[in-house]
Amino acid sequence: MKTVLKIEGLSKNFGKRTIIDNVSLETTSGEVFGFLGPNGAGKTTTIKMLTGLLYSDGGKISVCGYDLKKNYEKAMGQIGAIVENPELYGHLTGLQNLRYFARMKSGITKERITEVTELVGLSGRINDKVSKYSLGMKQRLGIAVCVLHSPALLVLDEPTNGLDPEGIRLLRDVTKKLAHEEGICVFVSSHLMGEMEMMCDRVGIVIDGKMVDVKTVDELVGSFSNMGQQEYKITLDDTSKASALLTSNGYSITGVNHTTVTVSCDKKDLPVLNKLIVQSDILLELVEPVDKKHLEDVFLEMTKREGNQIA
Known about the structure:
Blueprint: E1 3-14, E2 17-28, E3 32-36, H1 43-50, E4 58-63, E5 66-67, H2 72-76, E6 79-83, H3 94-102, H4 110-119, H5 135-146, E7 153-157, H6 165-180, E8 185-189, H7 193-199, E9 202-207, E10 210-216, H8 217-225, E11 229-236, H9 239-248, E12 252-256, E13 260-266, H10 270-279, E14 284-289, H11 295-305
Parallel strand pairs: 3-8, 3-9, 6-7, 7-8
Antiparallel strand pairs: 1-2, 1-4, 4-5, 9-10, 11-13, 11-14, 12-13
């Protein structure tokens, strides 16, 4: 995998207010990279700078090795982007829109238009007028327009806004297909954490204009799952005896029924807890976390630590 987008020490001020503060990150071909943050964290400002809609006050943005300031045309030639809503002509068909935008770039063939139509799953409706398209179909047609020239980087700002569950699923499938099968780096911003967890390979979290962390989704969720108190459901043959035993040894019991005891403890304490139960001649059958942490849980914990309120 090759580096597609490289942001180094990026900063942006509006008057005396610092919106982006020394942000750095790097993305590679073939990945879906999620750019996350609470409202007002600087996500859209960053996206506008990397798509050439705003100038930065410091730092460097390069796309496929081309400096956005020094080699603007070459850098922008590697980018396809939808910031807010795709600009389409409702009185034209989907195919007519693709042909119209194809004329703005050199070397786009009829075969390429057919290819992107299939990629975004619009082959059956491409001859319908765009005014008859659902919002999800318009988003997918917008993506088709963006990838006509085979960019290395596709930037999507809140692409699932207003979509129904089926539209979200289809957009997610298209996004992952473009990255994993076509080798495009997809840089996507969204406030739907559950969707980002299913869509993204890696995520970067920005809070108050500062990059807080960049990890794979599994690494980020896993790092938080291994920290602090977690509830575990323990299945055993004598819950009364186990409950009394664990309570007397300082464990916090949060639930008991005829087959299970639920206890709150650190993950690192589980081996000691298990040993205590077994050595007390209680048949231990299963220990499992009550709830697996998800990206949304991690995101809320991180923003809470930073003293932010989610708007």
